[in-house]
Amino acid sequence: MTAASMPNRGDSHVIDVRDVYFRYAHGSNQVLNNISLTVDAGEMLCLLGPSGGGKTTLVDTIMGVQVPQSGTVSVFGEQAPYRNARRRVGFMPQETALYEDISAQDNLRFFGELFGMHGSALRARMDELFALTDLRNDRGKLVADYSGGMKRRLSLAVALVQRPDLLVLDEPTVGLDPEQRLFIWRHLRELSDRGVAILMTTHVMDEAQRCERIAMIRRGSVIADGSAEEICRRTHAADLEEAFLTLERHRGEAAQQKEERHA
To answer: Which Pfam families match (predicted)?
Structure first.
């Protein structure tokens, strides 16, 4: 069954994050401050913000790697550890999670088998993904001999191996050249058109504009949520960078006024 024909099983959202608050045990400041957002089937949402703003931590809470102190996170209507939903999710972390002492094809075969794929079906899927990521001629190489960009492409192949209904991609185009980025974006749009929900992070404004919906994250809070055009229109900005700076300035002014009222 393809992602587009996969039943939704009555779930209203693929990802549903509600009032999530998180802080690390060793830290004094909150990393996620009562964040709420949803992602639906066929939707591509980009989490946009500077490094340290909370994007990766939010991804980790969605994937069940981190547990928030308050609030709820559900994926396909199920809360972590996602005993059923996990098989429907493809995940590409920011840090490479590959076995470097074996070949690329052995990596992809291993992860495919984890999802119950075997035999000719797995071999055909591997051929398809190595073609997609332009790694056909390097599939037999040790991952340790791969460049950073090649590892990112292999990580994407791993995330796609079981034909997931949800893709969670943390900075997926880092280390890729412009031609490779364009190719990856084209494929992501095709997946979205087929009903796959996609959540990705980036700190690059131009990359975010390729998503139909953007959630700007700053200091653990969502400061804007909408299309690039909507965000720019609401902030009277010429581009996303100007919009981000405008929103940050308004937040600073509001915080200062609050302090003055309580002084």
So the answer is: ABC_tran
